[in-house]
């Protein structure tokens, strides 16, 4: 079985690990699965061949034996369900791990994405500074709630799971803003995720792509 | 087995079906499962008893035989996996249905939520009108991509699935803005979802809560 994912040939983040292929690489590394990467140049992102794989013209996609998926949540959950290492054995605990994947993507990531909207997409607008304060306030509310739930635990629900993989990945996108510094248990939680050997390998692999010479 | 979900005692939308309990009610109706509803007054939403069920202080939650979940994506997926009616039988088609749940919640819902941010949370700000145009442009891009993928099909991947349930539910939140009118196939897709008897029962049930007298 060959697994092929897609990634940017040059990530907008310069290889700091925030592009979404890192989440999929991390899951594949936790499950000890080999994979191939097809790089998609920016110009090909909205071309028919890539839109056939992902109608929204984004990376990553995932192909394996006639199955083609997009959406990192679906890809990570697929890997987690079919290989050991990312979901607990207990049925209820499994459901809660899936719940944390959704919480990361649908409750935590939207306010994190607003940081990018205000700084990048609307960074030249006269309202940028005032909105940044509002956006940070809304994000802080969510972070405080997550911090209260995590308390002094290592992971969100017992052992490390795909839910933690996704939550740490989303929080990593907020980290450069410095907003996590006010929540020491969340900062330590993210650091625990980053310290996992599987994450380290995933990070190194995406960095290697972004520092390699582009094909002529 | 008793299923209990939570809902607003008075939804901010006045019972127009946009609160997230409607998504769970719809899934339960498609699966022909009876359920009970515990109404959570606004003042109790951030109190310890409800935060124990959902650390972000939101509705709906889902309880069944010792399992407690929040996140509508996780709840709908749980229902779909354990009861017929919401997932196709073919393994790959099942994975794609899950993919569309994530696409609805992580790719389509964030720009839809921006409509609420600009109109409600920041409706009194001097930038509201100018930002509304930007937010609508970004949402139109996503809608155009979805419209192109759906083309003239009835549902996103063959038969109706939990993926359609979630995508229709997210698009329903954009419908009052009128933005769907420019995409006749998406408007018809949403109308097909609304016409399903299970949706009709879910809508009526949430409306009944919102028009009933509050307890003294």
UniProtKB/TrEMBL annotation, chains A, B:
It comes from the Bacteria. Residues 8-87 form the GST N-terminal domain. InterPro entries: Glutathione-S-Trfase_C-like, Glutathione-S-Trfase_C_sf, Glutathione_S-Trfase, Glutathione_S-Trfase_N, Thioredoxin-like_sf. It holds the Pfam family GST_N. Residues 90-216 form the GST C-terminal domain. This is Glutathione S-transferase family protein. The lineage of its organism: Bacteria, Pseudomonadati, Pseudomonadota, Betaproteobacteria, Burkholderiales.
């Amino acid at each position: 079985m060959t697994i092929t994912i897609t990634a940017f040939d040059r990530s907008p983040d310069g290889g700091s690990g925030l592009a979404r292929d890192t989440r999929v690489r991390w899951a594949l590394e936790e499950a000890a699965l080999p994979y191939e990467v097809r790089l998609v140049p920016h110009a090909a992102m909205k071309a028919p061949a890539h839109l056939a794989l992902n109608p929204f013209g984004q990376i990553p996609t995932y192909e394996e034996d006639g199955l083609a998926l997009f959406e990192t949540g679906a890809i990570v959950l697929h890997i987690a369900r079919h290989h050991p290492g990312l979901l607990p054995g207990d049925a209820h605990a499994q459901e809660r791990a899936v719940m944390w994947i959704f919480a990361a993507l649908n409750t935590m990531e939207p306010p994190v994405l607003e940081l990018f909207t205000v700084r990048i997409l609307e960074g030249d607008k006269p309202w940028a500074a005032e909105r940044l304060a509002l956006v940070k306030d809304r994000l802080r509310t969510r972070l405080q709630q997550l911090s209260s739930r995590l308390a002094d635990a290592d992971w969100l629900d017992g052992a490390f799971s795909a839910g933690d993989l996704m939550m740490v990945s989303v929080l990593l996108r907020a980290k450069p803003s410095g907003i996590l510094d006010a929540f020491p248990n969340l900062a330590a939680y993210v650091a625990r995720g980053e310290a996992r050997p599987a994450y380290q390998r995933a990070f190194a692999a995406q960095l290697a792509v972004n520092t390699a010479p582009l094909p002529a």
